[in-house]
């Protein structure tokens, strides 16, 4: 690690003035600056050439101007278009090129005095194929909204008509339309009498309203298909293999517009413009919105967003980057302390976004934050005093070492992992719950390499009363349940969506899901044949490979084990396929594994993942800082999955040591880590903090006296405190993220709970001991501040609190209780900052 | 609490701020902005009174024979020991086990034809507490949640009103009464303890008994002046301490509200009323529930377990256990009616299933989901009505048969919540709050 630089940027400190607060808290008063008239140095068209076939629909062109200010601007709607040979191909004012007859033509475009052109070749199709359901009709029905989750794609359909959501099962959809309801939905002799068309055009009652009009292209297409005899697909029909969006990545000015072009790619190498048929979504509506036609409108904030284009189950994305209006001089970043690679990568990102990092946090803030984050407890008053008094330049690094070696480390991190794997005691029995809990704790106490931890789970065998990781299999009994869980917690990928249909925002298909599930197909379970006492739960044994196989429930095909984006597992005869899965998962080259856990750990230290939510990696939810995520993943692999080493790397960075108070240049940053983000203490950590500060322990049923809240091994251990602060309940069947929000129940509990009052006034408590020690009111106040807030009181605070000791009708005991009560009820106590 | 000095926004006046705490940058201003933020969330809308719900959960599964659906003409091994008695509604008969409820039959509807197929406590609890069946079989002892409970949904829909948690449960959470994906803030606020005991206090919403009002005032003043952490009030900064302040102020308002504080004090109820419910823990919880909905709690579950009568059902039902139920619920309905609270209070009384027609060898009845009786009253539920019927021997719901989903759709509709609403789980999966049920038309006269 490099030596700490302590230079700060004077402008930042100066900016934290009252005037700034005023301006920051009032709505923006400056009128938006009008965009200057665009001047282009060049314009380019996309695609660069068109190859069309007669009879096809129009193909869009998207025109981009390179402006003098360095931005690329969509000028499709401002350009003038002309065809050199309108008898071959025509073009309209929106840049839509329509083939007429075979031949060659050139489309000429001009804007702002600059021109370009696109050659078009039109091929004649003599034997026009009949329309097909899969290629032509289903996209139209999907685009018209028929197969939305709220309409006909509900699990039970809508009014007897059921389609598959996101069109994941085209064959079933075809069958439903052509054969179900005694064929009333389609009427080849008189297509216009088909119920399908009459409903969609509202000629008969339709709860979903009018989806298109009788003179629309959609209507014409479906009517034609019905008349032609309703082909599902042609024997040699090219298969859809990909979807591409243009432009895939671009920097925009605020409030800019962009037309997207979506091309479908087919197995014969041909492409098709499906801009009108694709569906669009934005991952962040503040950043950008997108309409039904693929028109993007960029929002008013700087940042990054993603537009998702979806066509027949395939997905592509367009990245939107909006730099801040005001970029800061390079010197701002060059002068910042550079403790390690994390800092360099975060500053690079901040520079691009025009954010300046907050000042370095104080030593008081650092010791509190670092202790809470790494070991889940407050520093003791002595630890605080010692740290503040230490003059060594590397005292923060020394503290980090000290914390990572603390005995609370294991229980703190085990709590986080048991959130993810803790079973429902009613499904596995309390004996197994305890067994698994202790195994997770021991793993983190001994800093077991993370790959080994995961391997032991993925390949678990044996008894649910002896071999702890098998308990997970007792809780998640089906291969599909294990797939959902393991992919989400170990890979950060929510394959679950693909259990029932194509993932709506990702490439994952049902085959991907069930190929993963196939690793667990051969796993066999056998009961011990003994009935233990009712609460313990029956003992089961797990072993492989004597079980069954896994099928894709739509195609009925038996699935072979294959990892997502990987190659089919090579298995020896009678080999447990889970061994191959563990090899793949923990391989240093695995594209998900190291990054997924690095992101999780990062999220614990910053209150927010680089990918957020931390278990939702997908193209349409990109990391805010991909280079940083890569670096963290590599660091972890380099250190053989030593989580402590990764934590040390993170805590050593200057970025981790930033203040939570924003400056004028990073107020709006909530995801690029230009400051520390405030976060409420988790239930267990907060309760242990209350116990430490008051000096009075809680007693938990089913746990030894003196146990910590973070050692609780089941949600059934009664604690209104932990319930109020949303500890997860493992009887709830979802891998639920911890709820970190605040609530009125929490406020009321801190304000009025009898338990807290009892702790404040207890004989053995900190308050009583301080009062009995004959310390002066000022000394008592100081000790209470050190215990609760890990800092000395300011002069004003000390004066206010001390003054209370001379009030009427009070005793030192009651005032000291009241001061501590006030501190425990303050945001500074409840939040990590 | 009346003595506390509160301004019209319900906040304690802050004498300390005048002392000149300008030491920290912009604190005064930040504080003012904080106050404004708190005011902005004070509920201002006073539309028509929303319906609140009291749900009495009879865990274990009460017998339909020994309550609202007696079969006097069935053979004795089915009929059991008890006779049927007339009620205040001509033509409707109850079991002699519920004589008090028979007297208030003219104020409620009994639905005799709800049926499902899950004979396990875990699954039955889930189905009748959430309106959704469990996707996998669930064993008898199980506590599971795959779907938000009614109370959690109502909490999600209504949010915190007047500083009051919207969903409370006495004296414990029922098995599937949790929030599932709606998150911990919609879990029930559990009020334990026995309201029939002398020192009963509702936890957390009132000052601890050894803290005087004056001392509480001092504490708040100290807190106000010592909570100096800078709040970042710009919305763009997304500072969670700003939300923390909003909730804290709501909590303060609740503690400062004489009306709310009175509601939590069951001792304020006259002896006559307390006696009418019965002086026991369950009945006094019902009374507490009435006081809670009166002050604006949206959904209160009163849990009353012990209905799993595999043995000695007749002996048990002759005793206090059943008498307390009969007297307490009848008193609740009568009380709500007399106070004019029926229109905006929905009372629902049910368990997870009915019980087997044939009395078993231990003089008990076993689990039977194919027929059960549910009591509903208030919120426009027609008075003096029996909906549907089981067959002659009480084996199966036979007329106007309804599913738990229909029951759920009815409950939500009465609560003003669209039962076809779609919510999204934390993985983005759309979930209908009720999958396919329709409100029971007989309950919307």
Question: What report would you give on this structure?
Answer:
The complex is a heterodimer of chains A (833) and B (445). Chain A has 833 residues and is of the alpha+beta class. Chain A has a 4-stranded mixed β-sheet with strand order 2-10-9-6, with no helix packed on it. A 4-stranded mixed β-sheet of chain A has the order 12-20-19-16, with no helix packed on it. In chain A, helix 3 (133-143) runs antiparallel to helix 6 (217-227) and helix 20 crosses helix 21 (626-638). The longest helix of chain A has 16 residues, at 430-445. Chain A is globular. The model of chain A is unreliable at 1-32 (pLDDT under 50). Chain B is built from 13 helices and 16 strands. The radius of gyration of chain B is 24 Å and the shape is globular. The two termini of chain B are 44 Å apart. The longest helix of chain B has 19 residues, at 320-338. Chain B is of the alpha/beta class. In chain B, the strands form 5 sheets. An 8-stranded mixed β-sheet of chain B has the order 6-5-7-1-8-11-4-12, sandwiched between helices. Chain B is 31% helix and 13% strand. At the A-B interface, helix 2, strand 24, helix 24, helix 25 and helix 26 of A face helix 1, strand 6, helix 6 and helix 7 of B.
């Amino acid at each position: 690690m490099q030596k700490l630089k302590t230079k700060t940027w004077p402008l930042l400190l100066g900016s934290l003035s009252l005037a700034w607060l005023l301006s920051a808290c009032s709505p923006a008063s400056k009128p938006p600056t009008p965009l200057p008239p665009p001047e282009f140095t060049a314009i380019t068209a996309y695609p660069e050439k068109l190859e069309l076939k007669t009879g096809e629909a129009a193909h869009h062109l998207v025109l981009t101007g390179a402006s003098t200010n360095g931005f690329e601007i969509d000028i499709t709607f401002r350009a003038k278009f002309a065809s050199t040979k309108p008898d071959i191909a025509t073009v309209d004012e929106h840049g839509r090129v329509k083939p007429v007859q075979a031949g060659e033509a050139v489309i000429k475009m001009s804007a702002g005095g600059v021109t370009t052109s696109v050659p078009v070749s039109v091929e004649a199709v003599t034997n026009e194929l009949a329309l097909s359901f899969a290629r032509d009709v289903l996209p139209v029905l999907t685009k018209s909204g028929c197969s939305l989750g709220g309409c006909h794609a509900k699990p039970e359909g809508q009014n007897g008509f059921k389609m598959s959501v996101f069109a994941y099962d085209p064959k079933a959809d075809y069958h439903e339309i052509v054969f179900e309801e005694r064929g009333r939905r389609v009427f080849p002799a008189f297509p216009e009498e088909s119920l399908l068309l009459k409903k969609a055009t509202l000629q008969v009652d339709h709860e979903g309203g009018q989806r298109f009009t009788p003179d629309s292209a959609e209507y014409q297409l479906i009517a034609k298909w019905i008349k032609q005899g309703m082909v599902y697909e042609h024997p040699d029909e090219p298969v859809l293999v990909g979807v591409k969006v243009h432009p895939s990545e671009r920097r925009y000015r605020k409030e800019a517009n962009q037309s997207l072009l979506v091309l479908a790619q087919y197995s014969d190498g041909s492409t098709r413009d499906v801009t009108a048929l694709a569906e669009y979504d934005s991952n962040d509506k503040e950043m950008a919105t997108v309409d039904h036609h693929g028109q993007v409108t960029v929002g008013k904030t700087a940042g990054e967003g993603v537009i998702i284009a979806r066509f027949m189950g395939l997905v592509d994305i367009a990245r939107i980057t909006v730099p801040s209006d005001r970029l800061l001089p390079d010197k701002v970043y060059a002068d910042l302390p550079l403790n390690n690679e994390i800092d360099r990568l975060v500053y690079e990102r901040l520079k691009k976004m025009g954010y300046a990092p907050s000042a370095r946090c104080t030593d008081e803030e650092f010791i509190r934050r670092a202790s809470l984050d790494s070991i889940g407890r407050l520093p003791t008053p002595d630890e605080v005093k010692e740290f503040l008094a230490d003059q060594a330049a590397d005292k923060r690094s020394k503290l980090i070492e000290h914390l990572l070696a603390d005995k609370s480390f294991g229980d703190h991190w085990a709590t986080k992992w048991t959130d993810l794997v803790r079973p429902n005691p009613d499904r596995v029995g309390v004996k197994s719950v305890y067994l698994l809990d202790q195994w997770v704790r021991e793993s983190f106490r001994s800093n077991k390499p993370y790959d080994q931890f995961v391997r032991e789970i993925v390949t678990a065998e044996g008894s649910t009363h002896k071999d702890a990781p098998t308990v997970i299999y007792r809780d998640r009994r089906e291969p599909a349940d294990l797939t959902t869980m393991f992919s989400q917690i170990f890979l950060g990928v929510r394959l679950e969506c693909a259990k029932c249909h194509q993932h709506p925002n990702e490439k994952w298909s049902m085959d991907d899901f069930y190929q993963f599930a196939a690793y667990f197909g051969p796993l066999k379970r056998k009961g011990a044949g003994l009935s233990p006492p009712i609460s313990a739960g029956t003992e089961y044994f797990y072993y492989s490979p004597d079980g069954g196989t896994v099928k894709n429930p739509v195609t009925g095909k038996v699935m072979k084990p294959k990892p997502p984006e990987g190659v089919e597992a090579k298995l020896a005869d009678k080999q447990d396929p889970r061994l191959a899965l563990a090899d793949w998962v923990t391989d240093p080259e695995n594209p998900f594994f190291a990054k997924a856990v690095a992101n999780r750990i990062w999220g614990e230290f910053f209150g927010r993942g680089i990918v957020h939510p931390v278990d939702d990696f997908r193209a349409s939810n990109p990391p805010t800082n991909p280079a940083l995520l890569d670096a963290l993943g590599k660091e972890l692999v380099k250190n053989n999955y030593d989580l402590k080493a990764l934590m040390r790397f993170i805590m050593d960075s200057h970025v981790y040591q930033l203040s939570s108070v924003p400056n004028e240049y990073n107020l709006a940053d909530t995801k690029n880590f230009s400051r520390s983000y405030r976060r409420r203490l988790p239930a267990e950590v907060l309760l242990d903090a209350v116990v430490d500060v008051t000096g009075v322990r809680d007693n938990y049923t089913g746990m030894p006296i003196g146990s910590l809240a973070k050692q609780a091994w089941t949600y059934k251990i009664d604690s209104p405190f932990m319930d109020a602060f949303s500890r997860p309940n493992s009887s709830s069947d979802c891998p639920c993220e911890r709820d970190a929000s605040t609530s009125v129940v929490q406020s009321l509990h801190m304000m009025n709970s009898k338990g807290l009052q009892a702790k404040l006034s207890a004989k053995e408590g900190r308050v009583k001991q301080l009062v009995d020690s004959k310390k002066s009111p000022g000394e008592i106040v100081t000790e209470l501040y050190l215990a609760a807030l890990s800092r000395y009181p300011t002069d004003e605070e000390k004066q206010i609190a001390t003054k209370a000791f001379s009030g009427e009708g009070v005793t030192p005991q009651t005032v000291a209780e009241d001061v501590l009560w006030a501190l425990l009820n303050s945001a500074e106590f409840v939040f990590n900052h | 609490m009346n003595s506390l000095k509160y301004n019209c926004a319900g906040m304690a006046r802050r004498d300390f701020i005048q002392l000149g705490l300008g030491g920290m940058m912009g604190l005064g201003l930040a504080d003012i902005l904080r106050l404004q933020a708190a005011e902005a969330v004070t509920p201002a809308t006073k539309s028509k009174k929303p319906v609140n719900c009291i749900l009495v959960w009879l865990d274990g599964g009460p017998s339909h024979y020994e309550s609202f659906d007696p079969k006097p003409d069935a053979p004795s091994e089915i009929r059991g020991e008890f006779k049927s008695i007339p009620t205040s509604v001509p033509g409707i008969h109850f079991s002699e086990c519920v004589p008090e409820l028979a007297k208030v039959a003219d104020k409620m509807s009994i639905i005799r034809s709800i049926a499902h197929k899950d004979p396990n406590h875990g699954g039955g609890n889930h189905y009748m507490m959430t309106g959704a069946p469990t996707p996998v079989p669930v064993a008898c002892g199980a506590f599971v949640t795959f779907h938000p409970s009614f109370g959690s949904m109502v909490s999600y829909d209504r949010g915190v009103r007047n500083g009051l948690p919207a969903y409370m449960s006495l004296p414990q959470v029922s098995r599937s009464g949790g929030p599932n994906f709606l998150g911990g803030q919609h879990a029930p606020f559990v009020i334990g303890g026995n309201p029939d005991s002398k020192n009963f206090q509702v936890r957390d919403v009132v000052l601890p008994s050894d803290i005087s009002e004056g001392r509480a005032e001092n504490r708040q003043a100290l807190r106000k002046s010592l909570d100096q952490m800078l709040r970042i009030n710009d919305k763009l900064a997304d500072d969670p301490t700003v939300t923390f302040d909003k909730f804290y102020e709501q909590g303060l308002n609740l503690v400062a509200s004489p009306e709310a504080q009175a509601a939590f004090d069951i001792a304020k109820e006259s002896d006559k009323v307390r006696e009418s419910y019965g002086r026991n823990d369950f009945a006094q919880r019902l009374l507490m529930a009435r006081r809670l909905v009166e002050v604006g709690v949206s959904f209160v579950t009163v849990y009353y377990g012990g209905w799993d009568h595999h043995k000695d059902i007749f002996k048990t039902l002759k005793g206090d256990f059943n008498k307390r139920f009969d007297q307490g619920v009848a008193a609740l309905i009568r009380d709500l009616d007399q106070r004019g609270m029926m229109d905006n209070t929905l009372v629902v009384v049910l368990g997870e299933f009915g019980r087997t027609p044939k009395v078993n060898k231990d003089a008990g009845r076993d689990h039977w989901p194919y027929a059960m009786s549910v009591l509903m009253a208030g919120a426009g539920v027609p008075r003096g009505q029996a909906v549907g019927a089981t067959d002659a021997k009480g084996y199966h719901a036979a007329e106007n048969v309804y599913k738990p989903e229909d029951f759920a759709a009815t409950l939500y509709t009465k609560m003003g919540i669209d039962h076809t609403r779609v919510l999204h789980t934390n993985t983005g999966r759309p979930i209908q709050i009720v999958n396919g049920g329709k409100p029971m038309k007989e309950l919307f006269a």
